[in-house]
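re: that chain from earlier
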Amino acid sequence: MAQHIVVIGGVALGPKAACRFKRLKPGSTVTMIDQSGLISYGGCGIPYFVSGDVSEARELSTTSFHMVRDVTFFKDVKGVDVLTLTRATRIDRERKQVHVENVTTGETTVLDYDKLVIATGATPRRLGLPGEDLAGVSYVCNPDDATRIRDGIAKGEVGSAVVIGAGFIGLEMAEAFADMWGIETSVVEITDQLMPRLVSPTLAAMAQRHMEEKGVGFYFGESVRALEGENGRVKRVVTDKRTLDADAVIIAAGVVPVSELARDAGLAVHDRGGVMVDEYMRTSDPDIYSGGDCAVVKHLITGQPAFLPLGSMANRQGRVIGTNLAGGEARFPGVVGSFVVKLFETSLAGTGLSLEAALAAGYDAVSVLQVQLDRAHFYPTKELMTLEMVVDKKTRRVLGVQGFGSSGDAMVGRINAIAAILPRNPKVEDISNLEMAYAPPFASAMDVLNSLANVADNVLDGINRGVGPDGFATLWNSNGEGTCHFIDCREEADADGYVQRNPGRWHNIPQGELRQRINEVPRDRTVVLVCNTGARSYEAQIILDEQGFDDVINVQGGMAAIKKYGIEL
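^ sequence. v structure.
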């Protein structure tokens, strides 16, 4: 039987659901409405248009075969009717009607529906700062915002920029300003690290250091108080600690789901916003579906509601909804929270829970760090990759993996492998034996993921006792009383410079000579072992354990992690 499907929202999930349903039920009618004049665009590509990687804003709204996804496209190609500049003002569930208003003329009308899709998305979190209405201040919402920002840069109006917020959009916009345009760029973040709760302070510090090397300044633990301007245009950002010059300001303090329409209709909405849906993407009304940035779904690790505003998720959920509108039983079980962000020549990626998030969720968790080459050590284009695994101590369940490495496919490929297996509650030994495609140009014979799990296995068994680069920094900086004895387990050629620069503090005993030189190791101090990545120092720890030493610490990630972290020896 033919139906009339009404879809509220025309950016990501809405078009996907509408087109999927129309392909399955071509005899039915689909009406999609959006309060904007611009529909079906790739919002995640906005920073790359500002940077110049994407040459035209139009490309964000085209198909892979270069057709613009506008009203005519949806009508002629997809058979979907679209009403732009049309705002849904009320849902009458009893009469199954949507009240709408033309935002230009104010004209109102009513749309009858058999099934309804709420795809209202999310909106930038407003800070309500004095001066937010000044020219040059932007929330990054749509391609029109991106065009305005880029036009201002191209006209020479921007010599300095401040980004408020160190999440995905904030970091991507900071890179866009500094990399392509050479603009003096600063990031102000109210927490004490970039990507808070998503990655550990160690990985965050590595990413921060790389961005600082590229000219981006960071101010953590600061709250923006006001934006000041001259002649109607922003000129300064005032925090609780300083004043920064700024010809452009990007406010990237996160987004909030637009769920008021659903709430006013009596649908179940989360306390912090977001439409509640089941695994079929149905709301509390079985004739109304929702998803994308306006909905909350189940987190497959914690079992709690999760808000993950990503275009990839919206598209997958849209297909599920389109299938179910047509009478199918497709499911979207939930998310594990996977992400990746490009930071100049590097990437920061993760899936599942960070250590902070795991502890907050009630797990007795520990994290381990591994630094290893992303391909065979003899292959010429190898690069070091840093991975961190979060594990529940009692059950040995892997709760998440995060990493920092190159901006190529190697890093995100490892994260995607873990993301695929996380819903099955893998344990450390599952990752230790995870089958990975191998050839020297692509991986090591013992892949970095396998090695990472082996480190976790040894840590949980108590035979690898160590700290990461942050823990090393604490030991190194607090060793004024000489309570620690640092031993570099690398060969003399690698260690000699550090011995010369740190006489009496830095000692060199290559791991292969340790048994013969055991008398050089003091038994009345904490012995801290360091090598290049943590592998040889782990072997040294085993030797010292055998010889009866009971206070030995291995530095996970070794000198590679120490350098990336930014510790100067």
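The longest helix spans residues 311-325.
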